Amino acid sequence: MLVTFFFSLSVLTDVALSLLLIQQSPKNLLRNLEQAEALLDCYHGDNNYPLMFWYQRSQTAMDLIGTLHYERASMEKNFEGRFNITGHSKGKGQLRISKIKLADSAAYFCAASLHSDAVCPSPSQKAKDP
Questions:
Q1: What is the model's pTM?
Q2: pLDDT tens figures, 78-130
């Protein structure tokens, strides 16, 4: 008897925050566990937003997966390994989930921001002592 487990990835699409329109695709994604990965896209196209955030909303919690600052991804510890963020925060970002598991069933969405406390300035940007 062959049993196939399915999990679904739901993505909020065309979310308008203020005047920023964020587009995500695919709208819905259904994978079985034999399919090794899932790929989700996020695009907002506004050069004023240097940060992109990816979130996972399960039945019990909403968690930050990671942040994309320009081309530099920073993953939360719980999502390191199988989850990967690539792309550019001012253009198209991608969330890749490899070796998918039933526990990955959730709604996934991205957000954009002008700033974040989590992003530290580089040494050249820090204020110098008088």
A1: 0.69
A2: 999 999 999 998 888 999 999 888 888 888 888 888 875 554 444 344 344 43
Query: From the CA atom positions of the chain, what is the Rg in Å?
Result: 16
Half-sphere exposure of 65 (CA within 13 A, CB side): 27
Q: In 3-state terms, what secondary structure has residue 24?
A: strand
pLDDT per position as a tens digit, 16-54 = 445 556 666 666 666 656 667 888 999 887 788 889 999
What gap in Å lies between CA 67 and CA 86, rounded to an integer?
10
Q: Give the residue among 61, 67, 58 at the shortest CA–CA distance from 7.
A: 58
What is the three-class DSSP state of 125? helix
What number of CA atoms fall less than 13 Å from residue 50's CA on the CB side? 8
For residue 37, the tally of other CB atoms under 10 A from its CB is 12
